[in-house]
Amino acid sequence: MGSQAAFLAEVMASDGLVATDRLATQLRITKTELAGAMGLSRDAVSKSSRLRAPSTQARLRDGVEIINRILAWSGSLPQAFAWYRAQPIPSFGDQTAEDLVKEGRAEAVKRYLSRIAVGGYA
């Protein structure tokens, strides 16, 4: 659990917003790649007015929360992010968590992960 708390502490700014520069650094990707992985435009993660928009922050928080949940099972942040981007989820027609977040279906992914966490089936 320590690595999960450390990840959240690192990527969340003191004002409660997701710090995209720190998140990109933690994930070892560019901010442009981060925008793509979260289904956002490049401007949404680079222009401060767009970055502070509630819809942008909600999408970023969803991605961070999903990656953080996977971190406990995957063993490392790179592995958690790889799962987010590439692991097909049978319950969703083999779409990835990234695909679902891009479609605005992050809540469905979080419910799926909650079911798995308590021993449910995929």
UniProtKB/TrEMBL annotation:
InterPro entries: Xre/MbcA/ParS-like_toxin-bd. Pfam families: Xre_MbcA_ParS_C (PF09722). Residues 78-117 form the Antitoxin Xre/MbcA/ParS-like toxin-binding domain. This is XRE family transcriptional regulator. It comes from Nitrospirillum viridazoti CBAmc. The lineage of its organism: Bacteria, Pseudomonadati, Pseudomonadota, Alphaproteobacteria, Rhodospirillales.
